[in-house]
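Worked example

This section walks through a single chain of length 624. The input is the sequence exactly as stored; nothing has been trimmed or padded.
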Amino acid sequence: MFKRKFFLYVLFFLVVSCHLITSNSLAIAANGRATVFTQDTNGNRLENVMFTLDGESFETNSNGRKTITVSADEEHAIVFGEVEGHTISNPDSGEITFTVNARRRETITGTFERDSLTPARFESTECKHELADDSITSCGFLLVPENRNDPNSATIKVYLTIFENPDKDSKEAPLIWLTGGPGASTVEAIQLFENTPTLPEPIGNMPSLFRDNRELIVVDQRGTNFSEPALYCSEETGPKRGDVYALPFSEQSEARVEAIEACFDRLSSEGNDLSAYTTFENAADIKDLRDVLGYDKINLYGVSYGTRLCMTIMKEFPEIIRSVVLDSVLPPEVNPFDDQPEGIMYALHSFFDASREAFPDTENLFYEIITRLKDTPVDTTVRVTNADGSTEDVVIPVNDVKFVSYVLGQLRSTPFDSTLPLTISQIHENEDYTDVAGAWVSNVNFFFPASEAGSNDPSLGMFESMTATSDGFYTTKEKIFSMIDFHNPNSSIAEWSKNSFFFSEPAVQGLWDVEPVDPSIQYPVISDIPTLLFAGSIDSGTPPIWAESSARFLSNSFHFRILAGHATTFLECTVEMMNDFISDPSSEPEFACPTEFTWTTSETTTSARKLKTLKKYRFLRLYD
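Given that input, the structure is written out below as tokens.
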């Protein structure tokens, strides 16, 4: 399967590189929709460009875009008017980039002038988190344009936490920490690296391992946490939380979409340019960080969505990078809404295979429980904490979809949940769904966050903008559903997938109304920058087959599967491998992690209780 994809990618690049269009006609793709982008030779979007298509007049918007529906499979004549005072009398006098059905780019070259943007700068500020007694941590804001395609753009602030190197004479390149989501909070990571909380092993010894002998900079990506603005939707989602705990997934999805649509209206009315919260702009922020703080080269660490951000930086600004560590890989060529169904089944089958020797009936029991709950849901009482801090008992009707959600959530656990096969067996025997109901409440709390910046809750505004400008725009309901129906033949898994990847997501439904980024966001990254890739072998969020895809385009990379779920570098063995690699990116690090799963066979095992304690340290979740 991959060889076929690789051949298609190579063929695609050959076609694009050899097919420079210089005529003034445009071939429209079969769906009859063409999106016209206008930009200068530096890639900056040109706004309010007048043009006619088949004699009808149009004008691109402030982001240099206009989408038009026309007859398919025909040639359509385009004539351009004025661009920032320059009249285009023929296609050779300016650069216009056409995007047809998000797959083919046709370019006419030329040059335009534009105003310059306010340069980025750094502004020190008091740290927002509790500092250790002996802390040498400093904090500040990176001030950058909100929209680099707009010469009149507002300035936003990207919050940086700089864990300084005790060795002031060290010349080591810093490590830039980029978290996932997109939109995940950095609060727990910052506390961890500051080493102020009391954390259980192995989490407690992570700060010294991660920081090693170089500066570590944790970036609150634009729109998140302590950055300004922080695009939180909690005032819309939080109040709904108590109303949706006991609802079916489909009704919960409707409530979530309604709340997030209201959040879009509020954030837009506050003057935020939501089309500017893209992976391209995010990458440019890191380039500015490097320039403003005066580093020669930087090391990048990305986890989940952070890996896609790292790979975009690799593509756009390779000259600034010394090495890259990608943990739980979300490649740009993967659209998670299209490709997640295959990944879910891959993770499930990997789990079933791994547990088969100790628990040979796990797969059968899993599907028997689904069938049982589909026919007869079980009311289960759990205690919940409402948005106002009050607590109450809520009855959760546990059905097949909620059980699927529970198991897939457990597969993301790092360290891996060694108790899961035993738990499935016990649920089948005892029909006690307390853990499933509790996990569902946790799931609702994540999708209906009640807290604002400075909490562990995600920035849904940033998530929706990042998603709508890229993955959401370049897929359809029909494509998502066809992939689900093909890869998820079990109706309960399919229902969970359709609610998770479409009905819950305004960005995919076209309800988060922002401008899409250039389709090159979907191109795989081909690079020889030293890169280390980690993938959790049973991760249902970013399955290991995604990392395999990227590794083949990265000629100078080392790729390892780890016996874990999501975010594998919260294991001591992977952190040691990461530091060895960053110290010498030219050498493959020695594999230091376990090679066999060890499953708990008794519920009283001490290690089982310990692993359950560690599950709360999930620093990010992707599309779950």
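What to look for: The first strand starts at residue 25 and ends at 27.
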